[in-house]
């Protein structure tokens, strides 16, 4: 069945609005991705023995990813380790971000430093080659930053002020307690990276009622953000999405 997806509620935490409006093209793309006609599978939901119309969360998740994948710069199933972001077309293990917008040259330089710099992984060559095999478009830049002369030394990570912001995102329709895990995850990733914004997509309104009980919702997440606003120092765009009746 076809449904109209739209943003019903939103909240900006810790300068997220200013950061996103400074990159209006990205903000507009995200807004358009959450405002579209989507295809969902109808199901029946039982609450205390009472049946009601509902939708499959997996379908909704896939549709949002499909809309975001139009912009090829967005990567999916993104994990962070030692300041480096890894991504794959396959479902990653628990702990990664659903999607991210990354400065790939900066990210590759960080990977190069922990593979061939002052302190290196023991599987450095395999790790480096595996990453490039998945991202062949970065090979030309990789050849420039890995030379015989600079082995054993870290090279400077240059951040271009004109480049895209570092954005990580979660599409969360799971158990309400997962919101705490997600915020700890982004705080951990922010230790070695300056994350510009977390885009956190949760249900509200009709959609909230059409999904399972006890899930992450806009109101529950907003309360967490406000309760811990002095602890969560990463900018957050909290997006409450809904569907037409």
Fold and architecture overview:
Helix 4 runs antiparallel to helix 5. This protein has nine helices and ten strands. Strand 3 and strand 4 (50-55) form a beta hairpin. By secondary structure, it is an alpha+beta fold. The mean pLDDT is 89. It has an eight-stranded mixed sheet, sandwiched between helices. A two-stranded antiparallel sheet has the order 3-4. The protein folds into two domains: 2-103 and 164-243, Restriction Endonuclease; 104-160, no CATH class.
State the separation between the terminal residues, measured CA to CA.
Answer: 11 Å
The count of strands amounts to: 10
Order of strands, main sheet, comes to: 2-1-10-9-8-7-5-6
> Globular, elongated, flat, extended or rod-shaped: what is the shape?
elongated
Helix content: 25-40%
Judged by helices, strands and strand pairing, the structural class is alpha+beta
CATH architectural type of the largest domain: 3-Layer(aba) Sandwich
Radius of gyration over C-alpha positions, nearest whole angstrom: 20 Å
Which stretches of 5+ consecutive residues score pLDDT under 50?
none
CATH topology of the largest domain: Restriction Endonuclease
Proportion of residues in β-strands: 25-35%
Q: What about the largest sheet?
A: 8 strands, mixed
Tags for this model:
245 residues, alpha+beta, Restriction Endonuclease, 2 domains, eight-stranded mixed β-sheet, two-stranded antiparallel ribbon, 36% helix, elongated
Short description:
The protein has 245 residues and is α+β, with helices and mostly antiparallel strands.
